[in-house]
Design goal:
Chain lengths: 191, 191
DNA sequence: CGTCTATTTGAATGTACTCAAAAGCGGTGG
DNA sequence: CCACCGCTTTTGAGTACATTCAAATAGACG
């Protein structure tokens, strides 16, 4: 279990005393998620705060017709989860699975409050993390409401250039909110 | 300037010593925003964390065709702002104005970091606040991507029953992502 | 009362979807 | 190493949900 990426990410916002770091590492769990395996299924309670160290995961909802809608992709260095399920301890409305063989580290929800008590700096860390996520979500809502499909695609390419060439087109279509057929036509129609 | 609603809201998550509360109140600014007046215009840097004490505000983006898209409504007891502009101190992509004569309290962005230093409990308060907002935004993205217009409207009615009968239909249409004409037809077409 | 904005209604249009089928691509096993 | 299988991508025809534009009606406010 290699927590170096996670510690580096934390170190960008707060500094931990050696014993604090040790305690943090002691409550960390490791999990391997092979391609197509689930980390969480819709209806389950979320496992906790999950950080991706390798591979790539996605969270998505399933609509009344059985179609999937991707809410987030999580390459290494990103956190993923159904935040509503996490904070209210209610069944998840999202499923999370792996698009490639992946590895994650997570903090069980049961340990999170204790972590905040012991090491208040984590309040700050997760505040910053959550504010960044909120800004991204807000931006996404603006895009979905304000931009036509073609520009939502362009924006996705701009924001996540490294994801574009490692994701199946079908997944990108689902993220920007169009059918795979429509995205294909869009990309193959000049002008 | 009546901060009782704000203090009550804070008290639900953290407790403050009398001198902490006094310090907090001392950095609070009051502003009246009359109907149709702006709190923030697109392109400006956000004023800071803003809490509504009376009236109702909305944040919205304007697309290439000049159409408005409502991101959030803020009745009394709610916070509002362009979080991206706030945390990165960059120009706002949202405009915020008042739908009714309103009053807000805000903390200037310049004082926020100092507030976190002096009273670390505010790290916790804003962490919780932001997590709740993130959960709501995530839910909204799921709805926009997964539900047809009719059900997005039904969900809005379910989530914000008190807003439905105090908002012009046009504003609700903008929030759920349809034109006012279409919402009108939707509501006047029996099943 | 007059003005301004919101809502309704209608007709024409367009963006994106559904369904179907063919073609491409990658992985796996014989 | 090639053949086959499953999944993704492409392409096409028909359709639907939602938009645009226009005009009439209704409400709210000074």
């Amino acid at each position: 279990m290699d927590a170096s990426l996670l510690l580096k990410s934390i170190g960008r916002h707060i500094s931990l005393a050696p014993e604090e770091e040790a305690h943090f590492l002691s409550i960390l769990h490791y999990k391997s998620v092979k391609k197509k395996q689930f980390l969480t299924r819709e209806g389950e309670i979320t496992r906790g705060h999950t950080f991706v160290t390798s591979g790539i995961l996605r969270s998505y909802s399933i609509d009344a017709n059985g179609y999937e809608h991707v809410i987030q992709f999580a390459p290494p260095g990103w956190w993923i989860g159904d935040i509503g399920s996490m904070i209210h301890q209610r069944p998840s409305i999202l499923s999370i699975d792996a698009l490639e063989d992946s590895e994650v580290l997570y903090i069980a929800e049961a340990n999170v409050d204790d972590l905040y008590e012991r090491i208040p700096a984590f309040e700050r860390f997760f505040r910053i993390l959550t504010q960044n996520a909120l800004a991204a979500h807000q931006q996404r809502i603006v895009s979905i409401l304000s931009l036509p499909a073609k520009e939502r695609y362009a924006e996705f390419c701009r924001l996540y250039p490294s994801l574009i060439d490692c994701l199946p087109q079908k997944q990108v279509a689902s993220y920007i909110g169009v059918t795979p057929e429509f995205l294909s036509k869009m990309l193959n129609t000049r002008a």
